[in-house]
Amino acid sequence: MNLKYFLCRKGDDEFLILLPLDSNSYQEKITILFDLLKNLCKKNYTLTIPEKDQTINVNYSYHAGISIFPEDIDASIKELNNPNLIIETLIKKAESALFNAKKDNEFTYEFYQKQLQEKMKNFLFVKQNIYNAIEKKEFQMYYQPYFSLNERSIYGAEALIRWFHQGEMISPAKFIPYLEETGQLIEVENIIFDLVFVFYKKLQQNNKLISISINLSPATLYKSNFINKIKQKIKNYEIDPSYLVFEITESTLIKDYNQVIEIIKELNKLNIHFALDDFGSGYSSLAYIEKLPISILKIDRQLIKELSINDKKIIIIEAIIQLAKKLNFKVVAEGIEKEIELDFLKQLQCDYAQGFLLGKPMPETELFKILKESTP
């Protein structure tokens, strides 16, 4: 490529390259550079260890993060005219891009994007504080009710985890992705089960039971001891699980559809119900719906949004509702924010609705108070 560059080793398997490129052609030349590097990595290499009289094959791969000067340097830093600070900032932003590149297959490189740095900050914050959160019991459960459209009364509630750290509520959008990536979601879901079952038993003891749903991750559902663990918790908490609902998404079905069916059937024997969440958000297939032993279909917010001005969406939702009824599923419409959406759903004979218009997620004490005041 006939380029001048500066190369140094940053760590055990990390290197820095400072590469002066023309601003009009840098993307093309970077593509060429990494194609060349990929071809070099894919060659066969051997390493001889003289003291052991041994030769071994060596394989190489790479992930790379890229930051660009001056585009990725804020004006406030440029004004300081400090070369060391500029280099330090470029390295940090390249590390942020590298963090994202490592999520993909080998031989991947990513350019820095501002949102990636924010994502990395979230990742590091959760990594530094999650163990203390578990130890100090900083997690709480909130419940978002869903309502019968005929009676406008609470039919059930979805359990949603909240993390309170030093008096501030951390958004689930910040910590759930980290837990999924690190495998710690299973540990936190164990906490969720215990917190929900305690509240469930309280409702049962006070004759205020409503349907309570818990979101299940694929990792938890596919865990070999999952069914036995649920059986044991039901026994320990002495609850009647017939009002318990486990929510799964379409992505859960991808790994092993037949295994999911068997797991659901086993838990159905305990009178536990299942709901398919976010229906319509992915590649919804009618082929697997009719075989799935679920009780509830939850229509994704994206289909509900702008329902009143989109005739095609009305046709799609009406078809989903009619199909669900023929399969003996109840239907919950998610994310209701406008009265006009509620009116359309009533006309389409949807069973239940959930959303900020009807009720925001609330602490269990607040939900219990509402149930105590509204039910006989």
Please provide a written account of the structure:
The model has no long low-confidence stretch (mean pLDDT 87). This protein has 2 domains: 6-112, no CATH class; 124-374, Alpha-Beta Barrel (TIM Barrel). A hairpin with a 5-residue loop joins strand 1 and strand 2 (15-18). It is an alpha/beta fold. The longest helix is centred in the N-terminal third of the chain and has 22 residues, at 114-135. 46% of the residues lie in helices and 22% in strands. Helix 3 packs across helix 4.
Helix content: 40-55%
**Which architecture of the largest domain per CATH?**
Alpha-Beta Barrel
Give the count of helical stretches: 15
Oligomer description = single chain
Distance between the termini: 80 Å
Radius of gyration: 27 Å
- Per DSSP E runs of 2 or more residues, the count of β-strands stands at 16
* Share of residues in strands: 15-25%
Largest sheet: 8 strands, mixed, barrel
**CATH fold naming of the largest domain:** TIM Barrel
Strand order of the largest sheet: 7-8-10-11-12-13-14-15
Average pLDDT for all residues: 87
